[in-house]
Design brief:
By secondary structure, the protein is an all-alpha fold. The chain is 69% helix and 0% strand. It has one domain (7-261). The chain has helices at residues 7-29, 37-57, 67-89, 91-94, 96-99, 107-134, 146-168, 174-188, 203-206, 210-220, 233-254, 258-261. The model has no long low-confidence stretch (mean pLDDT 84).
């Protein structure tokens, strides 16, 4: 049986993908008394610690307007990116029984894993905006572009997930390697520190990381007017597109051999 997705079976695959995503989301909190609250507590706990350290004790962000929202949004975006890539990377191996059914397009397993993380991300964003309204932080008209930046973040994360999941089937050490890379990325991306404490001549270097530009754009489109974007916005869109296309290419090239290596 071929792998071509026709109009007739597209609906079936879409329903299967959504079912996988929803089931994984439910299973994630199924045996937990607090359920989704645990997923919210992690970024909030990290936010509280970092806010106290960098705004109260070291006073790196203390003088910045809406620094608490700058920090919280950055942590929420970063948590989504890290969780998506880590979980989706191992999704093919973890769903080995399903992968061996050749009539199931293997890519939907990775997409379903990313959608599970996306559901948690939307819930976290809802909490973020609840805080924004409770504390009456000023929103700006750039908020209309916020969904576009969410899409950009998702596509970038999915593209990397496709690459990582395809490679992880043969290279299981990739999980440890990626965790180290994530630790480095966390500190080279302006998440915990305001960009304006970095000399402007280094901004171009920072924005070579498309994740930095995406998160900064999301801040600019919400409550942090001083979290300005840069001329690297188009670069981030280009890299996101290239990573996504490369992810599809690598995944398709390696997917026929998944069953042999799981």
């Amino acid at each position: 049986m071929g792998h071509t997705i026709t109009k007739k079976n597209f609906r079936h695959y879409w329903e299967l993908m959504c079912e996988l995503a929803v089931n994984d989301f439910k299973l994630k909190y199924n045996s937990s008394a607090l359920g989704y609250v645990w997923s919210l507590l992690r970024p909030l706990a990290l936010f509280l610690v970092l806010y106290l350290v960098f705004s109260v004790f070291l006073r790196i962000g203390g003088g910045q307007t809406n620094y608490q929202f700058y920090l919280l949004l950055g942590i929420i975006c970063w948590t989504f990116f890290a969780d998506t890539t880590l979980v989706a990377m191992q999704s093919i191996v973890n769903k080995g029984g399903l992968v061996k059914k050749v009539y199931v397009p293997k890519m939907i397993i990775v997409i379903a894993a990313s959608l599970t993380s996306l559901m948690t991300f939307f819930l976290n964003l809802a909490v973020f905006f609840i805080f924004v309204f409770i504390f009456r932080a000023p929103l700006n008209w750039h908020l209309i572009f916020f969904p576009l930046y969410i899409l950009e973040l998702y596509v970038f994360s999915l593209g990397l997930s496709l690459i990582l999941s395809a490679l992880y089937v043969s290279l299981r050490d990739l999980a440890h390697i990626w965790e180290i890379i994530l630790q480095v990325l966390f500190y080279v991306t302006p998440i915990i520190y305001p960009l304006n404490i970095i000399p402007e001549k280094y901004h171009q270097i920072i924005f070579l990381n498309p994740l930095a530009q995406i998160i900064q754009s999301m801040r600019f489109a919400s409550v942090n007017q001083w979290a300005t974007t840069s001329s690297f916005g188009a670069y981030a869109f280009l890299i996101t597109g290239l990573v996504f296309i490369l992810g599809i290419y690598i995944f398709r090239r390696r997917s026929p051999y998944f069953s042999e290596k799981i």
